[in-house]
Amino acid sequence: MIIFKDYLGRDIRLTDNRWEHILTRTEMVDQKEKIKETLLNPDKIKKSRYDSEVLLYYRLYEKTPVTKKYLMVAVKVENGVGFILTSFFTDKIKAGETEWER
C-alpha cells in the first residue's frame, strides 16, 4: 500500500489491488508520480454524480503516453481518509458539481 497526500493534507491510500486495477490500462504504467501530483495539486475536483463520497481529481498534462490529456483520480473519502478507486487519462472533465477549482 502507498499513502499519498491530497491538497488538503488528507491521507489518500492506494492499495495493491487498486493499483493492479489501474494497470489494466497500459498507459498508466509508471504514472504513480502523476497520480501523486494530481492529488497534491489538482486543476479541478468534481463530486461524483453517482456516489456523494467520491471525489474526482483532475490535472491537465501536456505530455502523457496518450498525448495531451487530463489525469483523473477517483477517491472515496470516508472519515477523513481517502482511498483511490481508479485513475486514467481522459479528454474531458465529467459533468457535475465542482468541489474545488484552481
Overview of this structure, please?
With 102 residues, the chain is α+β, with helices and mostly antiparallel strands. Helix content is 16%, strand content 43%. The protein has two helices and seven strands, in the order ββααβββββ. A seven-stranded mixed β-sheet has the order 1-2-6-5-4-3-7. A hairpin with a 6-residue loop joins strand 3 and strand 4 (54-61). The longest helix is centred in the middle third of the chain and has 9 residues, at 32-40. It is globular. It starts with a strand and ends with a strand. 26% of the residues are buried. The mean pLDDT is 96.
In short:
The protein is α+β, with helices and mostly antiparallel strands.
Descriptive key words:
102 residues; alpha+beta; seven-stranded mixed beta sheet; 7 strands
Tally of contiguous helical segments: 2
Unreliable stretches (pLDDT < 50, length at least 5) are none
Order of helices and strands: EEHHEEEEE
From the N-terminal CA to the C-terminal CA, the straight-line distance is 29 Å
Could you say which structural class the secondary elements and strand pairing correspond to?
A: alpha+beta
Using only CA atoms, what is the Rg? 12 Å
Largest sheet: 7 strands, mixed
Strand ordering within the main sheet: 1-2-6-5-4-3-7
